[in-house]
Amino acid sequence: MSYLAPSEFVVKMVDAGESKIFMSTKDTVIRAYMAGAILALAAWMAVTINTQLGIPLVAAAFFPIGFCMLYLLGFDLLTGVFVLCPLAVLDRRPGCTWGGVGRNWALVFIGNFAGALTVAFFAAIVCTFGFSTDPDKVGQTLGNIGVARTLGYEKYGAAGMMTLFIRGMLCNWMVSTGVVGAMISTNVSGKIMAMWMPIFLFFYMVFEHSVVNMFLFPAALMMHGAFSIKDYFIWNEIPTALGNLVGGLAFTGLTLYATHVRTSPKRVP
Amino acid sequence: MPRQLNISIGQHSDKGRKDANQDFHGAMIPAEPARSLKGIALALADGISSSAVGRDAAESAVGSFLADYYCTSDSWSVKTSAQRVIAAANSWLHAQTRRSRHAYERDRGYVCTLTVMVLKSRTAHLFHVGDCRVYRLVGQALEQLTEDHRVVASSQENWLGRALGMNGQVEIDYRAVPIEQGDVLVMATDGVYEHVSDRFVVQAIAEEAADLDRAAQRIVAKALENGSPDNLTLQIVRVDELPDGEAVEVLTQSTELPLPPLLEPRALFDGYRIVREIHGSARSHAYLAVDSGDESLVVLKIPSIELRQDPAYLRRFMMEEWVARRLDNAHVLKVREPNRARRFLYVATEYIEGQTLTQWMIDHPRPALDTVRDIVGQIATGLQAFHRKEMLHQDLRPENVMIDRTGTVKIIDFGSTRVSGIAEADPAAGRADAILGTVQYTAPEYFLGEAGTTRSDLFSLGVIAYQMLTGNLPYGARMARTRSRSEQRKVAYVPAAGEGRDLPAWVDGALRKAVHPDPLKRYAELSEFVHDLRRPNAEVLDANPAPLLERNPLLFWKSLSLALAVALLLLLAFHFDLGR
């Protein structure tokens, strides 16, 4: 597997962030929509595997398929742009402002959400024969997940909120490492390998991914999950997104940027 | 000492019975290493007699071929190099015709035939457009190696079917002929070959073997004597010595140079000692190095690992070297003439001791207007050198402009340059990649998928001038997000003169015109822009806004339709009222 020198891929990361700020609204939304939908499909598959086999390890081992597909097709996840876009502003690229970053995040959020919601709706139809029966096993599992990961946190109040936030941080630390890994390698097999490892880790450890959750919870609600939309946003989506933002930026974006772009002089012994 | 290619040449040209000699010929026998790497070149052109500028066309075709051919990258084959050089010369001639008074009269424009022979190692490469001929002497006869591109209407009437400068694109015949020691090749215009017998030519060459120029003179004189009405030009080549077999091996390799590894400081690389890395990105790596031959400082540029698998990128990478060597301008980076054969794919250029314009802008956040004028003027001079050769830079941005200690400004990167007439140089296919990271300076027409013009380079220069004065972009990030003309029309220009900056309104007017979203509304020439930055131009200050039809055609037609509808309703109302 051939790979790039650090000086090449960090400049590439900044370039990628810059190009996202300059991307037209249409392209941004379409790419985000497709990314959200493909990731949702993979999450649905993982839940199905888990229901059938009852072995979370197998589900986690196959979940990265979705991530690989959407990355290779050039689609954008909120977790990815959280890390890449701010780098262009920090690098003082002309025309890159925090306003532009915020616009990109908002558009990608909307796109991801719409994509994931579409798949959630399809999943609800498939699991209930067009809302004419009670949810099948997969549907029930989805509903249970929804309850466990909203009301489950709410039970512990502020401590639950902190747990949720930390899980979000850990998640995007891993996911953005996958994005960077894909940039380092120069061929398709290498890219897939580099993405597989951190995504596998995050999914097995049940860290909170804002885009995966955009599928899980709406699907759970449609399949009679016993929680409200307000519960979903306050006790999952918003803290998860913030955790994703902080984790990805702090542990991946800024560290690589600080050590490979803004290099300190080497110490002379 | 290994043997090298050696030839004898005899040439003669005469205007004959005509008033002017519209033929032009030339030969280039370079010293080593160019002789092994690029070969020996002969060129013969015949300007069309119906045109007053036929002679100029022939002269520039031969002259530019002989100069440009030796500027091409060592990694290109003879065929690729010569075809690209001829294609570029064709575009240039065609453009001259279009600009002249006779834009639509092909027979009065810059049109000529061109026949080129390149002798390299043990092969003669022939490139041919038009009706000159190349012969090989076989025993006592002449074997014609080229085909005349003539359309014959009758025994009296015929005209050129193909010629240089006739169209935007030209089809070039190519043929490679193996050569042996002692081979004789003859290139002649129609004024000669139509009026002397093969036997006479063979005899003259045999008798004047010691001085081929005399042989050429005798043949031309004989043709004139036989009543040739045209200009007469003849070139004779005799192969005296061929290079060793081993040398041939080395040479054939040069078309596919291996890619160099990433280099480390203090490493020795192909005769250079690496000092340090200057720049590294996903596009290329540049190193400061010392030439171990003459201890001079050079910059070595090598392809990045990221793009090594991309053949289009590698083609452009080598194109860049040719582009740079075609240009000789104080404001364009100079590529070093190779003084030895290369063993890897890289480009060696002069080292500019200075900083990029990006860094300069950080160091000088509020530069004096005069300094900006000076820098913009120098970049414009460099760009004009591109435009004069029918080339577009296409990727002008502050990172690609260097300012040295004397304040001289140079354009340094030519990776996206489009050479007119050469398809490979057109990055349109990989456009999405090509604009990555430089969208701020890319002219709006590129976002619509349109081809660029010299006005697109002007846009980039205008944005740079604006950025130097204000620190911002004239349209922020919004222009790069547009995908249609109507969207582009709506993007508002942020006046440079605002926000407490002390900038004359006419300078702002000049900037606004230079970065106009519609290429046709920009300046036609770079020089006009540079001039308007120095002297107030009442035109750009025109306070009258553009008519509504131009600013917002949709609104114009909507309002017009509304007015008509109202008028119609009123008429109807009156009509029924009166009828009652």
Q: How do the helices and strands line up, and which of them pair or pack?
A:
The complex is a heterodimer of chains A (269) and B (580).
Chain A: H1 6-21, H2 25-53, H3 56-62, H4 64-72, H5 78-90, H6 98-128, H7 137-148, H8 151-154, H9 158-184, H10 188-204, H11 210-222, H12 229-261
Helix pairs in contact in A: 1-5, 1-12, 2-3, 2-4, 2-6, 2-7, 2-11, 3-10, 4-10, 5-6, 5-12, 6-11, 7-11, 9-10, 9-12, 11-12
Chain B: E1 6-14, E2 23-28, H1 34-37, E3 40-47, H2 54-69, H3 78-99, E4 112-120, E5 123-129, E6 133-138, E7 141-144, E8 150-152, E9 158-160, E10 173-178, E11 184-188, H4 190-193, H5 198-207, H6 212-225, E12 232-241, H7 245-253, E13 268-269, E14 272-280, E15 284-291, E16 297-303, H8 311-326, E17 347-350, E18 354-356, H9 357-363, H10 369-388, E19 391-392, E20 401-404, E21 409-411, E22 418-419, H11 431-434, H12 444-447, H13 454-470, H14 485-490, H15 505-514, H16 526-534, H17 538-541, H18 548-551, H19 553-579
Antiparallel strand pairs in B: 1-12, 2-3, 3-4, 4-5, 5-10, 6-7, 6-11, 8-9, 11-12, 13-14, 14-15, 15-16, 16-17, 18-20, 19-22, 20-21
Helix pairs in contact in B: 2-3, 5-6, 10-13, 10-16, 15-16
